[in-house]
Amino acid sequence: MNSSEETNLLLRAQSWLRHDPDPITRNEIKKLLDTSEVKEIRELFQGHLQFGTAGMRGAMGPGPNRMNRVTVRRLAYGISTYLNASGTVVVGYDARKNSKIFAKDMCSVLNANNIAVFLFPRYVPTPVLAFAVRHLKVDLGIMITASHNPASDNGCKVFLKDGAQLRTPIDEEIETLIQSSPLPPITIPEAKEITTISNGDVWQSYCERIASSVDGGSPELRIAYSPLHGVAWDTINTVFTSSNSGQLIPVNSQVDPDPDFPTTSFPNPEEEGVMDLLLALAIQTDADLAIANDPDGDRLAAAIPTKNGDWRILSGDEIGALLFDRMAEKTSGNARKVVSTIVCSSLVPKIAAAKGIHHKETLTGFKWIIPEAYRNDSETPIFCYEEALGYATTEAVRDKDGIAAALLLAEVLANCQKNGKSILEKLEELSLRYGHHVTTTRRVRFKGAQSENHLQSVMQGLREKPPSEFSLGEVTSVMDYLQSDEHSSLPSANLVKLEIGKHVRALVRPSGTEPMIKIYMEMVTSVSESSQIAKAEIQAIETLEVIGSEIETLLRQYVIGT
Length: 562
Prior knowledge:
With 562 residues, the protein is of the alpha/beta class. It folds into three domains: 3-201, Alpha-D-Glucose-1,6-Bisphosphate, subunit A, domain 3 (Alpha-D-Glucose-1,6-Bisphosphate, Chain A, domain 3, 3-Layer(aba) Sandwich), CATH 3.40.120.10; 220-433, Alpha-D-Glucose-1,6-Bisphosphate, Chain A, domain 3, CATH 3.40.120; 436-560, Alpha-D-phosphohexomutase, C-terminal domain (TATA-Binding Protein), CATH 3.30.310. It is built from 17 helices and 21 strands. The chain has helices spanning 3-19, 23-34, 38-45, 69-82, 99-112, 126-136, 170-180, 203-211, 233-243, 276-285, 316-330, 347-354, 366-373, 402-418, 423-434, 451-464, 533-560; strands at residues 55-59, 88-93, 116-119, 140-144, 153-160, 194-196, 222-226, 247-250, 289-293, 300-305, 311-313, 336-341, 358-362, 380-386, 390-392, 436-445, 469-470, 473-480, 496-500, 504-510, 516-525. Helix 1 (3-19) packs across helix 3 (38-45) and helix 4 (69-82) crosses helix 7 (170-180). The longest helix has 28 residues, at 533-560. The protein starts with a helix and ends with a helix.
């Protein structure tokens, strides 16, 4: 960095300081300026958080490259400019650090720019906010949350008037407006048109709609449950109670919202070890099922007892197959439709084909799934999912809903028990009919200021020098979804698919919310009797572990080689 660049950077930090209303982040900036910590200043003030995948999220701290009150206010200004200083917005928030403060800042700026605002009086799960958009007939919904990110993060999710996640090109337009907006004043005019929502207006309506969306589980079911220190407990407990779908037994140490997430370093139920306390409770209470929501309640994880008394965590694809199979059983008609993503298991499309249900594949994320689901008025979407524990089971919420999905999974279990079988036996039935599908996701994380550059290097290297073979199989096909391909009807995407041997596929893409590469792998094995499934499972797990490790090594070499 030359002296001119350094001077501009320091001036940017000084300007930000004059507009920051938060004494904590103000003091952090002052300390950095006083000690001339140029490296840290550059990390905070060179660049900015991107507004993209359904919204924005990142680590909290000072400067445009962190989540803070100035960042939130600029975001609110960009949104109000997009709405042309008119319309109505509903704002919700979770229990993360600063979520309530960010929500109030968002409301104040929107209102100061002639946007009428509905504000939830306390924290709510994200599905309730998504439901509120259409229920209240507003122009936008904004949820202050960082979902399942670490405790140090915060952010927001944005929903359009159709109740679906923000999508391209609107996100790009708002991003441009944010970056062109001036730094907001410390003092914002007192809000005049902010309406506090009563529970009866939205939350109770949501609970009633979701409770009525299932045929019913069984009141005898005992279900171990954890919200992972998030905000879903009150809502999911109300829904289960009113629908008579079973008794939820909460993990006491995780049931109350806590922004520090003290029992887990990473409150994502997909991460290893995060569900340990839940599984211990399930064993202790002899539960029929164990389920968990992520902190904002839009994802569902689950575990089931096995024949030998152990517990097994279900993959996102296994949950998706169980939920879809149940929806296929309880619905009828030739216009039914199911939507899943390109990185999901190939099992759901096979079930759909067998039952005369139209299947559509999209790119990763609900910002792609929901528009596709409701694209054609002549079709009826009955289920949507992504492998990362996201499921849409009812038209009431046009986004993933971990609470509604939990209710449907309880119905799956109740239906299995009524027919004298377990969920495990139901999965075995699907394997015998469609092949034994094993999927896994490997996460390759990068740290530091250069992490985004590393992601670019990895994907560039994979495209320019793709592998020809691995120790367990030859690479028979490489498909780059950035390039147009006659075999793909999907839009261009930063995704590469490898076909390995006859039974394995691996898809590689950068995360849209974290500095990491995701490797989605699947192996399909034909089985003719139940006794073959355990062996097929072990073989698939071992195969995917070896191939996943070799792919990760290769990807890191692409970074080293830059």
